[in-house]
Amino acid sequence: MTGAHDHDGGGGHGHTHGVSADSDKRLLTAALALILAFMAGEIVVGVLARSIALISDAAHMLTDAASIALALVAMRLAARPPRGGYTYGLTRAEILSAQANGITLLVLSAWLTYEAVRRLIHPPEVTGGMVLGTALAGVVVNLGASWLIGRANRDSLNVEGVFQHIVTDLYAFIATAVAGLVVILTGFGRADAIASLIVVALMVRAGAGLVRDSGRIFLEAAPAGLSPERIGQALAGRPHVVEVHDLHIWQITSGMPAASAHVLVALGEDCHAVRHDLEHVLEQDYQIHHTTLQVDHASEQLLTIERRHCDDPHGPAHRRN
């Protein structure tokens, strides 16, 4: 007997986060307007003050604005219903957006590293007062933007990518403010470039994390915190289950894990009841709502000799210990 069941925990993705998609869009749009207004002023002040830290902050804010705009476009695409060959819709558009944000942070950090090192070797004259004033204003603006985006659904890697951009920029302004104060008090012009290098370290950390997490989804790796080996053993340990193999666990998009497996059930037992039990385990214990389980009765031959049920198995077979 074979049973294949695709279970989605309640309409759409089967997940609720307490924040609607429309609310996310409004929050991100408000943050975008705030950042664009401040960025324009910061570029002017950075050029006048000859501050690489301020200019780097402005460049980062430009990527912030681009990341928010990209996230908004990705949200619109991801909301489209499945059609044609896109059986999951365009939900991974948000993962593309997150990966683009991560790559942008890494590329920008390389350019800023070059500029900061160059200015460490040949430091220009920096107007500390203008740097300090603008940086403090930037702290306020980024606190506001961080608060807005922090209220959105950060379970989405798309939103988390934007949030990482904004928080990194907040740290950058704090470092720049400290550098401006050092320049005012001591005249040490290299403090500006040192602050920029601190920002670069934060950008690399955030960018690498986004590229890693989005890459895991594209490569269909198991979500962080979910061990296929442990889940396979847990399923194989359920009543009347003889073997679980071809177990695959992946993420369709952030916050939407999925699983599929071939399950062999003891002869004479109810395959449907076993399948429902396994679906319940996956949903309640591992928060996997989207499951496809093929369920068959184990043959007498399989029960008496060590042989796989499938001619082309993928991954290990899990059996009751």
Secondary structure elements and their pairing?
Elements (H helix, E strand, L loop, with lengths): L2 E5 L13 H29 L2 H27 L14 H29 L6 H23 L6 H30 L4 H28 L9 H9 L4 E13 L2 E10 L5 H16 L3 E8 L2 H5 L13 E2 L2
Parallel strand pairs: 3-4
Antiparallel strand pairs: 1-4, 2-3, 2-5
Pfam families: Cation_efflux, ZT_dimer
Main location: membrane
Membrane topology: Multi-pass membrane protein
Helix content: 55-70%
Tell me the radius of gyration: 26 Å
Terminal residue distance: 24 Å
- How many strands, what sense, and barrel or not for the largest sheet? 5 strands, mixed
Describe this structure in words.
The structure is a single chain. With 321 residues, the protein is α+β, with helices and mostly antiparallel strands. The chain is built from nine helices and five strands, in the order βαααααααββαβαβ. It has helices at 21-49, 52-78, 93-121, 128-150, 157-186, 191-218, 228-236, 271-286, 300-304; strands at residues 3-7, 241-253, 256-265, 290-297, 318-319. Strands 1-4-3-2-5 form a five-stranded mixed β-sheet. The relative contact order is 0.15. Mean pLDDT is 82; it is low at 6-19. It is a multi-pass membrane protein.
Characterize this entry briefly.
Helix 1 (21-49) packs antiparallel against helix 4 (128-150) and helix 2 runs antiparallel to helix 5. It is elongated and about 85 Å long.
